[in-house]
Write a structure and sequence with these properties.
This protein is an alpha+beta fold. Helix content is 46%, strand content 24%. Strands 4, 5, 6, 7, 8 and 9 form a six-stranded mixed beta sheet that branches. It has a three-stranded antiparallel beta sheet with strand order 1-2-3, with no helix packed on it.
Length: 232
């Protein structure tokens, strides 16, 4: 597909943003500069668990250790598949107010938790999967939803990982910054993260200091640009 030489274009299949024929940076790519020490610990744990389960008395130790190096990736990819499907079902529910169970107890439980949360809190969803972009800072992104709860308007993200981390609010700030560049009249009171984990846990957190998280996001953006500067 030919990329337009002028204007903004979002390649939904590849999830890539373009402006005036140039590829833009994604919000999640920008925040990839942040250290995630918990992931290192998790990867080590998965390697050790693989060795524990697969090392037998006369088995080739080197072969087991070689496979253990990528044990975390197999579990990560499986979790990503579950998260992707749960996310898609939540998106459908937000847009249509309908949910058809898949028969997968784990996924259905995650989506049901989101639905129960929305019903108990009388959440009014305003939009879903909105693409935003910033010409000034040259990045794009797509956030999960905006909604109203108790007369407050939230920009929100649905997460299926192991918990809620502060960088998720930096992500929301990046989306809001781009949204306000396009639609300055839009009023956002705060950010909300809704988290349903694959082991059955549920949590939500809100944050209201957009000034602080915007500065944090822009700091990450600056660091990302510096790290990706081509040296002469």
């Amino acid at each position: 597909m030919k990329i337009p030489e002028t204007g903004f274009y979002f390649d939904e299949e590849k999830h890539v943003y373009w402006l005036d024929g140039k590829r833009m940076t994604g919000v999640t790519t920008i925040l990839g500069v942040l250290a995630k020490p918990a992931l290192i610990s998790w990867a080590s744990k998965e390697a050790c668990e693989y060795v524990r389960q697969n090392l037998k008395l006369f088995e080739d130790l080197e072969a087991v250790l070689e496979k253990a190096k990528n044990a975390y990736a197999q579990k990560r990819d499986k979790a990503a598949d579950i998260g992707t499907l749960a996310h898609s079902l939540v998106e459908t529910y937000i847009k249509t107010n309908n949910f058809t169970p898949t028969g997968n107890e784990q996924i259905d439980a995650m989506v049901t938790q989101f639905i129960v949360w929305s019903q108990v809190n009388k959440v009014e969803f305003l939009n879903s999967e909105k693409v935003v972009w910033s010409r000034e800072h040259f990045y794009g992104g797509k956030y999960d939803f905006t909604c109203k709860i108790d007369d407050k308007t939230y920009l929100g993200d649905y997460k299926t990982g192991s918990g809620i981390y502060f960088e998720m609010f930096l992500q929301c700030a990046g989306y809001q910054l781009a949204l306000l560049e396009q639609e300055p009249e839009t009023k956002i009171d705060g950010h909300i993260i809704v988290n349903t984990t694959k082991d059955g846990k549920f949590n939500t957190e809100t944050h209201y200091d957009y000034t602080a998280t915007k500065e944090g996001f822009l700091a990450a953006l600056k660091l990302y640009r510096l790290l990706n500067t081509k040296l002469e």
